[in-house]
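We emphasize that the prediction below concerns an isolated chain of 316 residues; any contacts that depend on oligomerization or on bound cofactors are therefore not represented. The input was used exactly as deposited, without trimming of termini.
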Amino acid sequence: MRDSADSDDYGVTRAGKGGNSKKRGTFIDDEAVFAKRDRHLPRLQAEDAHDATDGLPEGDRWTTWDQSKPTERGPKPHPKWLVTDLAAVDTELGVLKTGKEADVFLVRRGVPGTDRSCLLAAKRYRDAAHRQFHRDAGYLEGRRVRESRVNRAVSSRSSFGRQAIAGQWAFAEFNALVELFNARVPVPYPVQILGTEILLEFIGDADGTGAPRLAETRPGPAELADLWDQLIAALATLAGAGYAHGDLSPYNLLVHHGRLVMIDLPQVVDVIANPNGRGFLERDARNVAMWFAKAGHPDADPEALARLLAEEARLT
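Result of the prediction step, given as a token string:
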């Protein structure tokens, strides 16, 4: 695209130097008369311009289930609680969490006139202009796409590369959640992905109260020991599948009625492909084991946990 408004690409030639007009500042307009008149007529909007919200209250939308490809939906069989009816409406109920790369909203998907509904967490990644990529270099090592120009753009952090990175975060998290859910790692069920929005199982109560983070809990000795056992099993399964969380802490582990659930996996690391894979495993182990040790659990040993995860990932 040319940057100048003087370009002939716009159907306008500026008079003056090289022009035929004797009066400076006038233009020669070769457009047909009907085209000039047509330019001022109102334009009809596309037939599906309002399909997402037509007839719905402000802030609501028709379900996006049918807009995602089969490969962009969660594992089958879909859970019974999930509403997949095309007559369903998504109603946004509020903000669950804000972050540097994405915001999470509470959404109720329900079929009007029925009691069929479910609560979802809508994680929406911000565009390249509003997100912070200060930590992406290490996490993205080992990730590649088929197009070499995309890989080059990602490496150079060009404008196009930053947009590609934004898409990589969302797809990396969704694909990891699908794989980890199938591997029985305790993660939210990944409902679907559409662009840079991921819809997930809401971890919380039916009234919309979200489950607390591990860091916000004060478990007694028995519950603490049980949560530690759940954590060991979850991290061992994760490492056995070849992954590290990459940014694990007591703030991205939820506790819902005694059940530990791992969240926030956009930076999930392939510990085999990433040259610092073992380092990510060790950091994850240290971050959570230190919290359990401070909470009073006698078996919380960061080094022992790191060795176990390295063995499960076959890095020893």
